[in-house]
Design brief:
The protein is an all-alpha fold. It is built from 22 helices and no strands. It has helices spanning about 5-20, 25-45, 55-75, 85-95, 100-120, 125-135, 135-165, 170-195, 195-200, 210-220, 230-240, 245-265, 275-290, 315-330, 335-355, 355-375, 375-380, 385-390, 395-425, 430-455, 460-490, 495-515. Helix 3 packs across helix 10, helix 11 (about 230-240) runs antiparallel to helix 12 and helix 20 runs antiparallel to helix 21. The mean pLDDT is about 80.
Length: about 525
């Protein structure tokens, strides 16, 4: 093989495949994911309807979703160098007799592959996409390709801005403000386009005209001319409809932008080697910590300090007030930035899932809640020694450690389902029960998190921990689902209310039992290998 970079890529892929085959944990995890996708595909075939919704809505969803992801990745990547190379890449490639341009090209190709892999979770959206819009497997793969292109261009744009403005904080801010300013103008243009429908909705009109007008804007020209995200969504949507001239236009625009960004990076006088070394070292430290069963907490460079001190709290209660201070400094009101993003996604999806009623949106929101709880503050708290050193009963410390999260989940549930209820036209009782049920699911998932840490905390394999986490949560949610279905048959007049009440009651009972059985989790740090 003539090219050293091609040889290195092939060997890496080969070793990763061998690692999956020879590792029981990774193999089991891969089988579980394939089985879950099979279930999702089967359920999608089962829920297929005779009449599909307007395909413009799907293109509009892609445009909005791609735009949100692009801005998130660009915002984080333009302030710090994108981790395009691993420490092994730095060790092998930088001393080699290869030009910096070839090494950078290798990093870009590798980053594109990683971007496509990150779109794997979209596979699990096949059921509702197929049932509502008639999406086929090949079309779903094209949506993932568009998602990968969006992330790739976001990282490439962030790298271009970072390399060009490295050492010039003011220039970097101006570049980021320009990008977000263009996005704001794009949003204003969308509002102006749908102003009549918005006024009609404000006066008590139907949401259907607004949805049709918004979908038409985000799925057709000039709405699709928004850089990168509109082009990617337009390319995929044109391939769906067989509009080859329009698909060619968007492909040319993406290629031209790629050449422009690559030229900005390659012609930059700033050498990217030093930045890459620092980023690769940081990434390697995170990987090492994960292999040792630890978590690295990401600390922002700039924190809004404001008022200092806890002011309240003594003993175990100080944990709760510390969490409130952290929320105030890193989020908006009661909510973290991640919670607001997930809430925005759920509310946006409710516009397109409203035909299924509030219960369908509730199921989608519960699915998303699995990840928000898994990425919550509780696991990060366990890596610090202070929670173990507080001379208080372990159960009391445990309850105060999860108190803030549950209160925040309550406010988040109210925010989401009051808006979702108005969109779907749900009854006030159903809205209240959805809020209560979401809070009980937050408690249930938190208890499942505690159970996994108590029973499997000594396991250092993150893949196994992830597998056990989802397995435990599935087992814990089954009794609530069964009880809800039974109550719906016993009290058919209550319908959805019986299902939500049954799930809520079972969730509370199971959560209380699990938390009581795991009450000594914070007694010794050795219990969970922290």
């Amino acid at each position: 093989m003539k090219s050293a970079l091609v040889y290195l890529t092939v060997i890496k892929l080969k070793n990763q495949l061998i690692g999956v085959v020879k590792s029981p944990a990774k193999l089991i995890y891969a089988i579980i994911l394939i089985a879950l996708f099979a279930v999702s595909a089967f359920s999608g075939q089962a829920m297929e309807t005779e009449e599909f919704r307007n395909p413009q809505e799907l293109v509009a969803i892609m445009t909005l979703f791609y735009t949100a992801m692009f801005l998130m990745v660009f915002a984080s990547g333009s302030t710090t160098n994108t981790p395009m190379f691993t420490l092994s890449d730095v060790t092998l490639l930088f001393p080699a007799p290869l030009s910096s341009n070839k090494i950078l090209s290798y990093g870009l190709v590798r980053q594109l592959g990683l971007s496509l892999i990150l779109g794997f979770f979209i596979l699990f959206q096949y059921s509702w996409m197929h049932g509502v819009y008639g999406v086929e497997p090949l079309q779903l793969l094209l949506i993932i390709v568009g998602y990968g292109l969006t992330l790739f261009f976001a990282q490439l744009s962030a790298m271009a801005v970072y390399t060009r403005t490295s050492g010039m904080a003011k220039a970097g801010k101006i570049a980021r403000y320009c990008v977000f300013g263009i996005a704001a103008l794009y949003g204003i243009l969308a509002v102006l386009t749908c102003r009549e429908e918005l006024l009609s909705l404000a006066n008590g009109g139907s949401v259907e005209p607004l949805l049709a007008s918004g979908s038409a804007f985000f799925a057709t020209l000039p709405g699709l001319l928004f850089p990168v995200t509109g082009w990617s969504a337009g390319l995929i949507g044109s391939l769906f409809s067989g509009n080859w001239p329009l698909a060619g236009l968007f492909a040319v625009l993406l290629v031209a932008l790629f050449c422009l960004l690559l030229g900005l990076i390659l012609t930059c006088k700033n050498n990217y080697y030093e930045d890459v070394l620092q980023t690769a070292e940081t990434a390697q430290s995170a990987i090492t910590a994960q292999k040792e069963g630890q978590l690295n907490e990401v600390v922002p460079k700039n924190v809004r300090v404001g008022k200092t001190g806890l002011n309240k709290g003594w003993g175990a209660s100080a944990i709760y007030y510390k969490h409130r201070v952290e929320n105030r400094r890193s989020g908006v009101f009661f909510f973290s930035n991640g919670s607001l993003i997930f809430a925005a996604i759920i509310i946006a999806m409710s516009f397109f899932m409203r035909d299924g009623g509030i219960l369908g949106v509730f199921a989608f929101a519960t699915y998303m809640q699995l990840f928000t709880v898994a990425l919550g503050r509780f696991n990060r708290e366990l890596i610090k020694p202070y929670i173990y050193l507080i001379p208080e009963p372990p159960l009391k410390k445990l309850l105060y450690a999860i108190k803030e999260s549950l209160i925040t989940d309550g406010w988040e549930a109210a925010l989401i389902f009051i808006i979702v209820g108005l969109i779907t036209g749900a009854a006030p009782l159903d809205i209240v029960l959805c809020i209560v049920a979401r809070i009980t699911f937050a408690l249930l998932f938190t208890a499942g998190n505690v159970l996994v840490e108590r029973v499997f905390g000594m396991i250092t394999s993150k893949a196994l921990i992830f597998f056990f986490y989802f397995l435990v949560l599935i087992l814990m949610t089954v009794p609530g689902i069964i009880l809800g279905v039974v109550l719906s048959f016993v009290f058919p007049a209550l319908e959805m209310a019986a299902v939500l009440l049954g799930m809520s009651a079972a969730n509370i009972a199971i959560s209380v039992v699990v938390l009581w059985l795991c009450r000594n989790l914070l007694q010794y740090a050795e219990l969970n290998s922290r």
